[in-house]
Amino acid sequence: MRVYLNLLSAVIFLSSPGAASAAADAAPDTDVRPVIRKAKEAPMPAAGEVPMLMTRTGEDEKVWISIERPDVAALETDLLSRSPLAQNERISVYELTVPELDELSVRMQDRFRRSPGFFAHDSLASALEDLEEPPAPPARAFVIDQQEKVKPMLDMVKEESIISTIETLAAYKNRNYRSATGISSSKWLAEHWTEMAAGRPDVSVTSFKHASFPQESVILTVRGASEPDKVVVLGGHIDSVAGSGDNPAPGADDNASGIAVVEEAARVLLASGYRPAQTIKFIGFAAEEAGLRGSGEIAAAFKKEGAAVQGMLNLDMTNYNGSAKDIYFISDYTSADQNAFLGKLIDTYTGYTWSTSKCGYGCSDHASWTKNGFAASLPFEAKFNECSPDIHTARDTLAQMGGRAAHALKFAKLAVAYMVETAK
Ligand SMILES: [Zn+2]
To answer: Does the pTM exceed 0.70?
Structure first.
């Protein structure tokens, strides 16, 4: 695919000196790949040389986003009325300030009920990579043959544990990626998961620090017993928002319910004494609502390290039973092969019903993994347009969902079956 740079914007020269000198070498309507390469190779400026606009504090902090062009047209917002820095047939790249980014998240939710529906990046070079076609994940076999291990574990999955995690997370005023309570909610998760790992030398918990925002992602790792270099990932986002700023945002469904499912799968796997052949990682992602920033950094780091990620399952909104079937697999920006495997897991291990739905560009953290060439899936609580009407408001509480976690429980059982049937 050919991509085009728009060089009319002077902003690029102010904010990103490394990328600017590279971009200046490119003529309009040219292949952008050498520009991306050169921008990535440009040396980072020394501390004393960093121009004011690159400082990471206050209103002038910059981010770069990629967003689909039809969404830009439909949004009709002043935020994107400027010229894009670059674009291809489908996607445009813009520079925004952080307050503009937060405002864009709100507009995307209001207009399309998508959150976020775009990727945000710390650098222009990173954003420009979104103009390239993602590599296809390596082919692998999908076989279901672990019934003896999986079936007793499924009986251990408990609604009460899921409820407890949802209530604890929803009790924070919000879990915004830049708020005090957003920071402390992620620290609580790290401490709580560390307690879960006690007594297991093959289990560790780390906090993944992000350079541009204070909320940390949290990673619980169970080291593979025989093939530790192969990795299976179960993740969901920690953060929550309601509008922009420090508003009450319990985020019980979006996405305490996803973290609760991730944690319940980890709890059951550890409690059963299960030792995976491959390494398994449970991840709470920071800053999903602000452009998939936590998962974006982590998936890119895994790719850079050459991690052999066998599959990734994203849990984002699991507890609002809004449609006729139990589980809906998001079919765009996910792995069709892995989605089919997940459907077979449901048929094999549960009596649940499932179907498919679509959620668009950059709709949740699985998209970060797909973009980096890994097989990723999102089992979702309803058809996309029939999901909880209360997300991103102060009404997104467990009480609003009947005080139960019976719907989320189905996703926890699927997650357990997925991990054991993949990390073998
Ligand atoms: Zn979410």
So the answer is: yes
